[in-house]
Amino acid sequence: MFATSNQFIKIISLIFCYYAILQRGICENIYVEGLCMLISTICIFKIFSKSNCPYSFDKVYHIFYLFFFSIAPIIQFKNNVALLGTHFSDSEYIMSLFLLLVSLVLYEILYAIFYKKIKVESYNNQDINEKRNKVNELILILISFSILIAMLFMNNFNVMSLLLRGGEYTTRQEVSQTSNLIIGKFIRPMSMLIFLCAYIRKDISLTTKLILFILLFLSICPTGVARNVTAAIWLPVLLTVAGWARKRNVFSVILVGGLLIAMPLLNQFRHYEGGSLEIGLDFSQFEELHFDAFSMFMRVVKDDIITYGNQFLGSVLFFIPRSVWPDKPVGSGCYVADLSDLSFSNISMPFLGEGFINWGYPGLIFFIVLISYYCSWFDKNYWETENNSGHYRIKYLILMSLLLFMLRGDFMSSFAYTCGLLLSYKVVSKIV
User: Fold this and answer.
1) Candidate from 7-11, 198-202, 210-214, 297-301 with smallest mean pLDDT
2) 250: buried, middle or exposed (CB in 10 Å: 19+, 13-18, 0-12)?
3) Which of 95, 134, 184, 341 is the most core-located residue (most Cβ within 10 A)?
4) How far is CA 117 from CA 52, 78, 303, in A?
5) How far is residue 368's CA from residue 73's CA, in Å, rounded to a whole number?
């Protein structure tokens, strides 16, 4: 019965993808369609396989690949979309899609090899037996409340500014880049981590958990932060609190639905000026800069932009302020925008593009090896152990949710946010 249901979902998903590929606009090059169909087919079968692993790094990787490297490229190609005023030729589309197809096949092979070879590590699940008392619970509430006050201060104590990402209702304090890094990537996520670590403890009262959730919602409202942050914060919360979200295929449906419906909905809060909101499927979003990952990958390959590791160095040393390192690299998207004299510089750079921009084709292969090992290691150590609960589950869910951010890029921003969140997790796990 379960197998039949899985096959049905795969067929429906393939029909949906093929419809997007074959019916939207007029295509004059069958090779572009064919490559997109091959990528979509591989991704759909991987997304809705392994029903005993309803959510995983591997599924997130394929969901990203499906939308950003298959659906978005074909829609942009068919509708002759020129992101940032650049028109790419048919041959450049074909070359980039073929390279991405080969990269996907290489990932599949390496993931399977690593998954088989990796030895499961023992993990000390940090569920503390010491019983929490009311004073301990009050401390957790006070910490979360202090974070909320700090965020209100950053928004000039304007609640609407806190709850909305941008628009006429927002008024924010001007802070240095270092302060923004500490507050946004280390302090603010603590609200989510405190709630999750408290939620898994049976000795913390329901009232305390509810208060912590309200403080979390106000501090990191989904409509008040960037969409990649929303996914990183609220997917772990959903998967921890809602048991039904951890059942077979539900996570995949949630993430796919999020990209198709929630993403364009949340984007309306980026410059919210009041009025009604539009909710529904919006294929036009694939023609906008939100889905610039493929075009940025195509751009660095086409222009043969290689920095010989300089961008990677800047990413791993993100914590060094520019006052100390004046020539510190900017994000790869911004770097390419400046180099290519583009009209807009706040653009992404996908993970595979980061590989190429650092060391060319060897860098691309290195980054595929890196991401396939990263995904397989976490998946195997989570799904093939008895420790996939408690604190270990929280850590796994956080990193899995951040993967989408990392894959879209750029690497400097996503790596900094990941490190900040892990540091916050380390601190909070000791407190709770």
Assistant:
1) 7-11
2) middle
3) 184
4) 20, 42, 38
5) 20
Buried b (16+ CB within 10 A) or exposed e, 193-206: bbbbbbbbbeebee
In this model, does residue 179 exceed pLDDT 60?
yes
CA–CA dist 241, 20 (Å, integer):
34
Residue-wise pLDDT for 271-319, tens only, equals 556 565 666 566 677 778 788 899 999 999 999 999 999 999 988 888 8
Residue 229 in 3-state DSSP? helix
Distances in Å between the Cα of 208 and the Cα atoms of 71, 203, 237, 384 are 44, 11, 16, 33
pLDDT tens, position by position, 388-402: 667 888 889 999 989
Nearest CA among 64, 55, 60, 48 for reference residue 11:
48
Count the neighbouring beta carbons within 10 Å of the beta carbon of residue 261: 14
Separation of alpha carbons 40 and 55, rounded Å? 19
Structural contact between residues 378 and 57, judged by C-beta atoms closer than 8 angstroms: yes
Q: How many CB atoms lie within 10 A of CB 285?
A: 17
Residue 203, classed as helix, strand or coil, is: coil
Residue with the two structure tokens 């939207």: 24
* Residue 127: band (very low, low, confident or very high) from pLDDT cuts 50, 70, 90: very low
Decide if 333 contacts 348 (C-beta within 8 A).
Answer: yes
Residues 6 or more apart in contact with residue 175 via CB below 8 angstroms:
154, 183
Residue that is written with structure tokens 């960037």 in the block? 226
Rg (CA), the chain: 22
Give ∠ CA 352-193-181 in degrees, rounded to 5. 55
CA-to-CA separations, 175 to 183, 194, 424, in angstroms, rounded: 10, 25, 21
Span 360-370, pLDDT tens digits: 999 999 999 99
Phi, psi of 53 (to 5 degrees): -125, 75
What integer pLDDT is reported at residue 2 of this predicted model? 46
> Which own/partner contact pairs does 125-134 have at CB distance under 8 Å and 24+ positions apart?
125/387, 125/389, 125/390, 125/391, 125/392, 126/390, 126/391, 126/392, 126/429, 127/200, 127/201, 127/390, 127/391, 128/201, 131/203, 132/201, 132/203, 132/204
